[in-house]
């Protein structure tokens, strides 16, 4: 896409199209250093095939894997810790379901499960997949000149639509009575949600409802239309994980009212967890509006009309 018009509109320096954050040589040197470091700490009993795989890994792919991992992990854990300090300790946020907290045993078990995934599964999967994605040409390397603001903007919107479409329909399908207890019930052990609950689920749900919708947009756009820059990919991962951690945090945070109406929010997702009915969208309410499943909104309208109380229960009028 042509960025000339946008570059003329934006203040000088804001549109960084063509700017290079890191050179190919720097990426290669850093990647080789990582590869050699991993080889040096592998136990002698490590199969030769594994050592060969590591030694022959693409330095550029390895650095993209590290950048992707940081985009996923830093925002997730820092946001969760920040919400805990700001809301639990300093009482700055507004608790949605006051007096309700998930059991400590559930939270502790979740942290242990997530640490295994985030410190073992995620790095291994990214190390294996990112070099292959670069080889296919679906993503541009970290050392490629940066895209313009217009390219980043339309791609993020496309990623969002693809993500929310896949997530909505997979999520709603998992709520079918024949599938719920097998694939989605674990996630709903959190009647009252917290940020880390965003990724608390079984392996099937993690792949079909979380990972696939997350990566489908960038890979589809990169494969069928135009290669997506690796930094745009990392920005997307960062923003989407931030959004889902925020939606699960259980608190109305100070910036809540600055959101766009189309975006989903913590009130809707807290309703979904506590009522287990409706509001199946992820980052937006688009499909909930189209399909009539924005039950939180409909309930709020009935509360204002005096048809339900503040908890959502119908008010029976005395005859």
Helix content: 55-70%
> If you average the pLDDT, what whole number results?
87
> What is the total tally of β strands?
4
Provide the succession of SSEs: HHHHEHEHHHEHEHHH
* Low-confidence regions: 1-13
Cα end-to-end separation: 65 Å
Largest sheet: 2 strands, antiparallel
Structural class: mainly alpha
Number of alpha- plus pi-helical segments: 12
Question: How would you write the strand order of the largest sheet?
Answer: 1-4
Radius of gyration: 22 Å
Principal-axis shape: globular
What is the strand content?
under 5%
Protein model, in words:
- The protein is mainly alpha-helical and 319 residues long.
- Helices cover 60% and strands 3% of the residues.
- It contains twelve helices and four strands, in the order ααααβαβαααβαβααα.
- It is globular, with a radius of gyration of 22 Å.
- The N terminus is likely disordered.
